[in-house]
Design goal:
- This protein is α/β, with parallel strands linked by helices.
- The chain folds into two domains: 244 residues, Rossmann fold, CATH 3.40.50; 157 residues, 3-Layer(aba) Sandwich (Rossmann fold), CATH 3.40.50.
- It is built from 17 helices and 14 strands.
- Strands 5, 6, 7, 8, 9, 12, 13 and 14 form an eight-stranded mixed sheet that branches. A two-stranded parallel ribbon has the order 1-2. Strands 3-4 form a two-stranded parallel sheet.
- Helix 6 packs parallel to helix 8, helix 9 crosses helix 10 and helix 13 crosses helix 14.
- It is globular and about 65 Å long.
- The relative contact order is 0.14.
Length: 443
Amino acid sequence: MKLRKLAVAASLAAIGLSAALTTPAFAAEEQFFPVLAYRTGAYAPNGTPWANGFVDYLKLTNARGGVNGVKMIWEECETGYATDRGVECYERLKGKHGGATAVQPLSTGITFALTEKAPVDKIPVITAGYGRSESQNGAVFGWNFPLVGTYWMGADVLVQHIGKKEGGLDKLKGKKIALVYHDSPYGKEPIALLQERARMHGFEVSLLPVAHPGVEQKATWLQIRQSKPDYVFLWGWGVMNSTSLKEAQATGYPREKMYGIWWAGAEPDVKDVGDGAKGYNALAMQHGAEPDSKVVKEVLEKLHAKGQGTGPKEEVGQVLYMRGLISSMLQVEAVRAAQGRYGKGKRITGEQMRWGLENLNLDQKALDGMGLGGVMRPVQTSCLDHMGSAWARVHTWDGKKWNFTSDWYQGDEKVLRPMVMLASGKYAEEKKIKPRTPEDCKK
């Protein structure tokens, strides 16, 4: 009997020891982010590296100890770049794990659909380099954050760049620019800016929509061959981009006269075209391919060297991988900013996350500390400015890799701000929104 009691006591002690080894003394705080991705369908070759970079940075954040000890958790949902599926993913995930902290749709169409849901659910919508251009005005769009750049800003920089090449914006008078664009909310975004710049400088804009997914462009390039535009701006995504380059090659349109937006300037867009894409230009959303950056070396060391990377090691540091990584970094740093006000080491709510996104101050020291020095420029947002940075530059495909081929440009606020204020004011009137004032922002 005594031996039996000793055996039971030993078993209980062993269970207790096991529990002590496997159960933390306290439950660690967790911050939940839905990941709306598309790894299948026509846009998978472009959506996949973005998602891999996005998730890898969340993993890297946890490997660094989280944000003051708070760990990042996430769940992917496949949208296929379809607006209805994107909304379904949002609705399914928004309430999980105590509630979503923010959402990044990676689709302008999904962004439009979520814009009216976000204020009700109090979940910020982050659209780094896409979405609604007028949502830069945080007074009206209190929950949308087009961080680092909008399509109006991108189109403005492209006009500035070709103006510089021609010897001045006044030299654009009489020139012809063809916009080959994805026939979706995304592709239509730059039209208003280009038409405004055309009015200012006297050039002509022809609009050439391409239907999803973008593999049928014969008629489009026949029009280009006939009209002989001085420049072609490409607002494509997925297979549409490589198709455009192949059609340009087939019709003899000079690739050096072609300029893509940043979603048409990555490795999947040109690698299958190879030398046929040589000379093609695209905007860089600050970063380009960054294989030598410190953050990439850290990802390879802390994740991929241990078999914990999200995708193939070879894509780490490529353009869209870096885009996803930077998009993830922006939301992580917003969590850090919010903790600075609401409590370090604590899980923050969607409303607190909005404050963090409106008070981002990523100066050079902060970027250097994250391994992003030389990759991007500082970002500083406010309650009324939800973009925070308006810089871009051009990179060019040499047949094997992307190389930066321009200095930095900044979107012209004298052109952009009136457009943003007019469009956001119209939206506020239609939706009966009372714009926030500077005083409201202090609350």
